[in-house]
Design goal:
Layout lengths: L2 H12 L5 E4 L6 E6 L5 E6 L4 E6 L2 H7 L5 E3 L8 E6 L2 H18 L2 H10 L1
Antiparallel strand pairs: 1-2, 2-3, 3-4, 4-6, 5-6
Length: 120
């Protein structure tokens, strides 16, 4: 799968969440996915190649993720629980998509999480 297809799969998932939107505050090559009406980010995607995704994880999930060769502490925000994954193949993509889900729920405002839960 190509970098463009990886990026398309990531974008499709990220924008499928309630109140999710894409922004480009740092230029067209940095795709920032936000939740709610404010500036709360849950993922940042770089087009690559390789595609990179920076996202927030729980402490436990972060410890596991950081054992993988394609995951590192995120620049600037790593100390706040953010990691960056290089999406180079289907396995990396699969793990990254799961982490994006986690990051969204960690960053979504309580009212968004509650309304999404009520709809399911």
């Amino acid at each position: 799968m190509s970098a463009a297809r990886h990026a398309a799969a990531i974008r499709e998932l990220a924008l499928s969440f309630p109140t999710a939107r894409e922004d480009h505050p740092w230029g067209p090559e940095a795709h920032v996915f936000k939740v709610g009406g404010g500036s709360t980010m849950f993922a940042i995607m770089g087009d690559g190649p390789p595609v990179t995704v920076t996202m927030k994880l729980t402490r436990e999930e972060r410890e596991v993720a950081l054992t993988l060769p394609y995951v590192s502490h995120a620049k600037y925000v790593g100390r706040y629980g953010w990691v960056t994954a290089r999406v180079e193949d289907a396995d990396c993509l699969s793990a990254t998509l799961e982490w994006i889900r986690e990051s969204y729920w960690l960053k979504a405002p309580a009212d968004v999480r509650e309304s999404a839960w009520a709809e399911s």
